[in-house]
Amino acid sequence: MDTIADHLAWMAWTWQTIVFFACMAAALAGLTTLAVLRPETPHRGILGFATTRGDRFFVSLLASAFIFLGFIRFGGENFLYPAAAALLLAAVMFRFA
Amino acid sequence: MDTRAFANRAWLFVVPVMIVVLFSSLTPMMTVVNYSFQDTMGQNNFFWNGVGWFQNLLDPTTAVGQRFQGSLLRNLLFSAVVLAIEVPLGIAVSLCIPKSGWRVGAALVLIALPLLIPYNVVGVIWQLFSRTDIGLLGVGLTAAGVPFNVTQDAASAWFVIIVMDVWHWTSMLALLCYAGLKAIPDAYYQAARIDGANRWSVFRNIELPKLRKVLVIGMLLRFMGSFMIYTEPFTVTGGGPGEATSFLSIDLVKMALGQVDLGNAAAYSLVYNLITLTVCWVFFTYTTHADQKDAA
What we know:
Chain B: It is found in: Cell membrane. The complex is a heterodimer. By secondary structure, chain A is mainly α.
């Protein structure tokens, strides 16, 4: 009998991308749960417009993508640096945006 | 305080849409992400390639990097030119549409006609129109002594593609602006008349500010449309002469389907997607933020 893995073979999964998408799904589920349990009002921070947790999360992700691409563009090798920068940026976003 | 009843059950109605999106967008996109980190020799055998494709794509000294950079710059130039022509022209056309009587219907139908034509048919119309043997435009320009050849001359190809886009899409901006103009209450015009404002200051101080929202939406739609354009230029020029009109989508399709270069094409499409996502987010945030400021 075919396993689920056989059915998904065409998608060419790797454990790295599985971990990535699992983290995304977990983050979205977490944010949804948080929104239900602890409703929030958007507040204005350094971005200059009212943001919710979801907005801050989205901005962090978008900016992280550009941080990593910029790092690759200028020939960086050790990905701990952009990862640290992205985490720092996310922390700043969630605290001050 | 908002006292309306709030039912979370409404979310259930979104479930069918979510399922469709899962199959039509999310699953293919996850596959593209998987491809962008691997290499394949076919037969569904994949090898981990790390960020190799992204390094390739973002380095302008590689062949793929050069293609990406060239297409990106061409596409940005195309979007800028198209917006710079269509927005002022759309406003101008909307100001000329009659405000009452049977002429309104006639003008709106005529203006909307180009929007009803399928993209590939628009391409075919302009491809034929610009041919130098049977096309009215091509024959006319050649007879007038203007050097014109879409298949060999990059300037001719750009000219036709830009005029085609203006012809196809100015109508949308004109209709949006017309709707915006109709929404301005008469009191504003009466006040302007009492103040003795001339036509220009009515436009500058009443009509243009009131059109801001529709213009932002129109510009977003036209930027996205021109930044992701494929069918029309592909039908007219096929991306040529040479690479002269290879915009991002055209180049990407060549890479993914023509050369079956899956890894490079996957990295290409993810970076492309990131750019459109960012622009879309900026526009969206700007419009919603502007709404909040207006309401305050």
